Structure formats: structure tokens, C-alpha cells
Amino acid sequence: MIINLNFAANSLTTGLQLAETMKNSSLVVNIMLVALLLASMISLAIIAAKLIQYRMAFIETAKFVDVFWKNKEAQDVAVKTASLTKSPVAAVFAAGYAEFKETKESWEDKGIVIIGGKVDELAANVDRAMRRETHVRIQILESGLSFLATTATASPFIGLFGTVYGIMNAFQEIGKTGSATLGSIAPHLSDALVTTAFGLIAAIPASVAFNYFNARLQKFENEALNVSADFLNQIKRSNV
Fold it and tell me: What pTM does this model have?
């Protein structure tokens, strides 16, 4: 209880100090602080949403991969994994199997015998369907990551601009007063330090999260390629 009260008191003190700093800061610095604060809040919201999305995708992909490698028949895999809608790899397989089944039934209805070159043509159709679905799923998983990358890249430079601006104002104040007293330049140095701190606060979580999600995304893509390759090999080996 005491720890919670101390944390609340410290948070309140920090908030009051920040409010006082913004009150005494110039308009340009305040604009940068607000921009960095908004970028940080949006980044945190994206990170929270992506953690949930990627966690569900990871869990269901693990289930799908387990079923896929234990079952030789594509129909059995499709039936057993139909409910795994959050897995990008399962979605890629589902798209490929749907194309396989639709094309195979269409050709059989027309009396086309699926042997030889027709097997390769069928495999090519399935491959295109799975590649198309892979791109769609990658785009869904990538949504929001560009904002994290931009925040991670731009925020330190915005903070650096605030630092330069604050130092310039400090030198201008020295030129006006003719003396470099702490009281005359401290507010401007405070502007410089605050914007730099806010730039780092916004950039560090965004950078760490972007790298984490990008690594996860690569694993999903590689798993989808492995599943696609194996499914296509099954089609060619079985000669349909």
C-alpha cells in the first residue's frame, strides 16, 4: 500500500513538473513535445494490439503445423484446421487447398484427365493461390509496423531539433544579457533536455517492438513457404 502511494505521489510530481516545463517552454518546443507524446501513445496502442494479434497467430500456427505434419491427406488437414482463422499459415494452406479442390473438380466435370502436364498446371494454380494469400496475410500482419518504424527513426531527430533550438535560445539569451548566469539559460536548456528525453521515450519502445514483430513476421512467412512447398510436392507425388 505504501509502495502504491509512493508511486502515485511520484507520478503526480512528475506530471506537475512536466506541466510546468511545458508552461514555461516556447511554442515550438511545446508543439514538438505534443507531437512526440502523441507518437508515443499511438505506438504503445499499436504495440498492445500487435502483441495480441501475433500471440493468437503464434498459438494457432503452432496448432496448425502440428496437424499438418502429422496428417498425410490434405483433406484431413483442411477439416481439422478449419477453425484456426487467426493463423496466417493455416490461411495460406486453406487458400491453396480451396484452389486445388475447385480446379480438380472443375476439370473432372469437364472430363479432363489430370495426369502429366495437367498435374504441373494444377500445382502452378495452387502455388499462385498460396502466394497470393501469403502476400495478403503478410500485409495484415505488417499493418501498423510502418508507424513504429517511422516513430523509431524520426523521434530522436525531433528531440535533437528541440535540443538545438533550446541551445540556440540559450545563446541568444546570453547575447541579450551579456552574462551566462544559470537563471538566464536554465529554462532554455530545460527545453533542450525535455525534447531529447521525449524523443528517446517515443523511439526506444517503437524500435524494440518493430524489430520483435519483424522477426516474428519472418518466421510466419518462412513457415508458410515450407507448408506451401510440401503441399505442392504432395500434389506432384500423388499425381492427383
Answer: 0.79
Of 95, 174, 80, give the one whose Cα is nearest residue 134.
Answer: 95
Cα dist from 222 to 138, 187, 218, whole Å: 11, 53, 6
Specify whether the CB–CB gap between 213 and 145 falls below 8 A. Answer: yes
Q: Which three cell numbers stand for residue 187?
A: 529554462
Maximum pairwise Cα distance, the chain: 97
Q: How far is CA 154 from CA 38, 63, 144, 202, 211, in A?
A: 13, 39, 16, 9, 16
How far apart (Å, rounded) are the C-alpha atoms in residues 173 and 166? 11
- Tens of each residue's pLDDT in the chain, 240 residues: 444 444 344 444 444 455 555 555 567 777 888 899 999 999 999 999 999 999 999 999 999 999 998 887 888 999 999 999 999 999 999 999 999 999 888 888 888 777 778 888 899 999 999 999 999 999 999 999 999 999 999 999 988 888 887 777 777 766 666 665 666 566 666 667 788 888 999 999 999 999 999 999 999 999 999 999 999 998 888 755
For 145, counting Cβ atoms within 10 Å of its Cβ (0-12 exposed, 13-18 middle, 19+ buried), the class is middle
Q: What angle do CA 172, 175, 176 make, to 5 degrees?
A: 90
Q: Is residue 35 a contact partner of residue 158, using CB atoms and an 8 Å limit?
A: yes
